[in-house]
């Protein structure tokens, strides 16, 4: 295959990835292709969003709050029991980045927080691994952890609700 054909097919491939990003409302997409022993293509397509930390949210009592869900509950169950999107809850802690969530510092250790635990501003709630960098996510406000909406090792998107602190 000539270099010109390879370049054109690579450009078409990257355009297709950008369209996939747009069509599925994704923030980032990374693909690695192996063509042969010394021939590969690594592509990362991103919307180029700038990280802005969400402002601290004042905890407000929620009328008609349902019972607290166990930590391993699915996000869909949490959303249906609270009557809405957990991201819109006043005590929601949302993901500041795309990555993989880890609820403890290392495998086999105790989680950073658990349901019912009191936290203060700055306490580490969990870690999000993004681009092989471990990012500690601190509590933006003090309160009691009411729900953990993610599972250990789960992928998260920017703005996805991680937990509820009231």
Q: Could you explain the architecture of this structure?
A:
With 166 residues, this protein is α+β, with helices and mostly antiparallel strands. It has 2 domains: 3-46, no CATH class; 75-165, RNA polymerase II/Efflux pump adaptor protein, barrel-sandwich hybrid domain (OB fold (Dihydrolipoamide Acetyltransferase, E2P)). It has 2 helices and 10 strands; from the N terminus they run αββαββββββββ. The strands form 3 sheets. Strands 3-10-8-5 form a 4-stranded antiparallel sheet, with no helix packed on it. It is elongated. The model is unreliable at 49-55 and 58-82 (pLDDT under 50).
Describe the structure concisely for a colleague.
The protein is α+β, with helices and mostly antiparallel strands and 166 residues long.
What is the CATH C level class of the largest domain, in words? Mainly Beta
- The helical percent reads 10-25%
Mean pLDDT over the full residue set: 75
Please report which band the strand proportion falls in: under 5%, 5-15%, 15-25%, 25-35%, 35-45% or over 45%.
25-35%
Keywords:
single chain; 166 residues; alpha+beta; OB fold (Dihydrolipoamide Acetyltransferase, E2P); 2 domains; four-stranded antiparallel sheet; 2 helices; 17% helix; 31% strand
